[in-house]
Amino acid sequence: MSNHSRYFRLDEEVLSENWYLGTPVDSQGRELENMREFTSGQRVQSYRRMTVPIDETGRRREFNMAGAGRTVVVNVRVATLFAELAPDDVQLLPVAVQGSPDEYQILVATKLIRCIDDAATEEVLYWKPEDERPDKLGEYRSVYGMRIDPTKVGRAKVFRTWGWDIALIVSDDIKRALEDAHVTGTRFEEV
Questions:
Q1: Average pLDDT of 161-165?
Q2: pTM for this entry
Q3: Quick one: pLDDT band at residue 44, thresholds 50, 70, 90?
Q4: Has residue 163 been placed in a domain?
Q5: How far apart are CA 156 and CA 142, in angstroms?
Q6: Can you name the residues that pair with 143 across neighbouring β-strands?
Q7: Which terminal CB of the chain, N or C, has fewer other CB atoms within 10 Å?
Q8: What share of the chain is helix, strand, coil (3-state, %, to 5)?
């Protein structure tokens, strides 16, 4: 049984005055073959330092989702909060943000938990054979109004949801710590 009663999907706050980060690239300017390694709910095994371009200039944020791959990029202050509160649930990888003197890290949730409560969720659609995506067969194609079953979470405070790993989930105490620290760029939705 979980010792946390509430969980939240952590996403970036979308405001026109904010900057928006692009997909991380290596020292040769190439995107990784598979950006999903940062959202797969597993530790990244081999990492070479990346740079994140700024797709749209604007107000810097401490919490960002970079590129279409939704890679989480946080400044060092936020990375420290996650490292202190959920050391077993996160991996932090140094990353440069183009033109920014601040230190940033890629935040990788290292747990993938099968916990979406299909019955309580507003709408779930699955990949089917006729979709001709055998690599995704049986996984979620769409999840709207997500609800999770907290009894399946265990002690995790930060994790990705199995089958719908674009969702980054945090426990109530992580949410409170981010709010108390006035971290910029965050948006929470209870799940």
A1: 90
A2: 0.91
A3: very high
A4: yes
A5: 24
A6: 124
A7: N
A8: 15, 35, 45
